[in-house]
């Protein structure tokens, strides 16, 4: 598929802005500073304990250019999570971030296999240390993401220090890290404000005049909780008798939070109070977005007022354009909104979805649409944007969107069903694909995209003939560039396996041209790889070399070596090197093709790679007199045979390759009685000896020199006990070798 660039939310990479005066918390700074000598610092406490502010203050105090990511629910997609982590590393000045981003952007990349090793290797070679802060890590619930972070810590080089700010212990091996002395921790008991810190905090609140005794009583009521101190300071401001207000609380009254929140809201002017409630549905807000929700034009002025009033609003960028509410305060606002006006949240989420859609932020638009409960709006947005998100590898995000929609709606929408099918194909769940298509085709029996996906499933499961027949019935819509290109590509591929080389060449050439025009790199790589394979099959070695080289260059340039499509240039190269008798080169290319093919290729394609590896391996491993990773050609043939046994119609080409390898295996078995067995290359030469051609002609057919052929013949005669070409043929036939 064609590449798509994700919209990056820059405000996720800003650390919290600090007020002009902040409390000096040297004892906590010392712990954080010591933690930088270890792989991980954990700051864990419930909402409102000042976790993010503390870390931001320390970074500013020590002048550390750390990378910062404010996580949200969307970061449960491993690709999105790692994109922001690496962008944060890049912003902090680490070259390892940019290098690993290249791997992340490679088509078909895998975080654990490709991205994480590139990042770690880049850090190892770096001189400067890197501090990465992951804020609100408790919002990450994906097992895949947590596994990747655990693996990063397991392989953590000395240059990297990770800081997790979270409300709950993360799913990491904390016990092991503690035992190793590789973990620094700050928890509630550490974060409680001391008497001195509370005095400093409340002394600098405007309009607040408290005695030391009053401060200590507020501290006792809030138990050193930063948010409680902040809420109390707001309510105490301007009171003539603060002691009387403080006295109304008892030490055991933990409803203080709700009480103070209600008091704070009740004391606000009606326009501010309504603005706070309406905008509480937003994860982040700017003036135009707020205006879209309120229907007014005073968003900028109201944001400025609540910021100056210290109403728990946090700037997200240096320009003070984007803000968010403190999580605790935002939660209280949303609770009050739902209590006072149960119907309003859905309406507000719907307005936010429309605003984000108009401003080309599909992820936020879909998130708000789903929260609104408007299935029609949600499905329309998902249908319009899932392909772009799928193309950048965020499969988990697409799956989450689809799971949030009613199953019957997805089943009856052709575009959403196509998304479900592609997800299943990518994960190898072919039976699920069939069921989804069956249901979707009831509602959209003539949908071109669904028909194409049906043909693609047939092809991947090994029914090449059935796929070709269905593809011939499809007339792609010229407006759907992706289907128009890939339809020609897959039809060309099926015809190649079916033996129609001329028509296959025409279609693959057209697919390659269209793919270049559409910037569909994967399709072009696939088309050129198959063209190279066709050129090998018809003996045009120079053209095959040129096409394979171009496709291989594209694989390297786009860092697509982890995608199964990259197997096709490697397969063509392997068949080409077999023709040239470069056994080592053929073996390398063939095993590369097998490895890549296991990442999602069709059954016929993987079987073809296995058979090619078997053909190369018998000669190369014999010549090298060793095994490679315990690979044996016979095992490769057996695996290919097992795969093809489950193919309804694999086509004659790969079936012929299987027959050739089975004959070679049989010949190998039959010559076990020879004192010195023939090599695979000698067996190949032996099979052509009965032909009525001169030695020079035979050498040309075998792509070797006459002198090389004579050398092989002398070895063959010696091993068979023959004195001539004719006698060697007779002895070979008697022994069942040909």
Query: What's the overall geometry?
Result: elongated
Strand order of the largest sheet: 2-3-4-1-5
The major sheet is characterized as: 5 strands, parallel
Structural class: mainly alpha
Uncertain runs: 249-254
Structural overview:
With 738 residues, the chain is mainly α. Among the domains are: 10-191, Rossmann fold (3-Layer(aba) Sandwich), CATH 3.40.50; 195-266; 512-669, Serine Threonine Protein Phosphatase 5, Tetratricopeptide repeat (Alpha Horseshoe); 674-734, Orthogonal Bundle (Arc Repressor Mutant, subunit A). It is built from 39 helices and seven strands. The strands form two sheets. The chain has a five-stranded parallel β-sheet, with helices on both faces. It has a two-stranded antiparallel ribbon with strand order 6-7. A hairpin with a 7-residue loop joins strand 6 and strand 7. The longest helix has 22 residues, at 603-624. It is elongated. The two termini are 47 Å apart. 45% of the residues are buried. The model is unreliable at 249-254 (pLDDT under 50).
